[in-house]
Amino acid sequence: MRAGLEPAVTGASVSSVTVFDERSLRRHDGPGEDFVDRLSGRGIVSAERRGKFLWLPLGPSPVPEPVDGAREALVVHLGMSGQVLLRDRETDDRLTRIRLELEHPEHGPLRLNFVDQRIFGSMAIDRLIQTPDAPTDFVPTQVAHIARDPLDPLFDDRLFLARLQRRNTGVKRALLDQTLLSGVGNIYADEALWAARVHYDQPTSTLSRPRAKLLLAEARLVLAKALGEGGTSFDAQYVNVNGASGYFSHSLNAYGQQGKPCPRCGRPIVRESFMNRGSHFCAFCQRVR
DNA sequence: CCCCTCACCTGATCGC
DNA sequence: TGCGATCAGGTGAGGG
Hints:
The chain is α+β, with helices and mostly antiparallel strands. Helices cover about 20% and strands about 25% of the residues. Helix 3 crosses helix 6 and helix 5 crosses helix 6.
């Protein structure tokens, strides 16, 4: 989504904003009117991401600046069912909750539809603050607690491994904790665990250093491969900014593969309920030890 | 402070 | 055709 947005929106300005459902502003500190006022007329500087959060840093505000003169950004999170779709001026999408009309000096008019069935996703205007580990990096305040993802050049492997082994919980819980590492959700957690032959409920405290390192390496591989294939789409709900599906669903070894043979040993992949969601794994290859 | 459960939501699909 | 049950990729407030 970030890669698709960047060339289209950088240098554009926001000519109008329509909020169809205020619940999609869950992360915005203020009413819908405030969101519209603070976004209208702003220029878009770039497209940035950390984990599953995306933000578009904004140019100077024509309306009251933050008191300290901090830069602001439009923050987007897709939640479970969100989409950002770039359209022409006439195209409607069902379940559009927020719409931006953009004007690009070279590419002309562009419509950005924020579509979200379940409304777990959201948009917000937020202030940008310095990150402690790289003074030239800025993130929205609501992203400050999110760790870097394993593909980030500044991701600190040793820090991650130390924090992981200090935890007193199951390893999949830890993988899903965005303050430990970001970008890994239910699909990529199951895929990384399968690749590293680790059981989802293996206690982090008893995970050996080599196995923890292997797990991190596999998580990194899974993310890189999924990004390269445009993400994981099972249906029309998971699409890029042009409405196209990713291809990573064809590469899944464990997630959603219950009943099918493990690609490694041939025994069936099983699905267990865990944390109110599915955990998919090979009961032979992936055992607690 | 750390860990875990649960609330937050809608729409597609499936079985009866 | 209709109705209810079930399922879904995430996050963070609040309780223990």
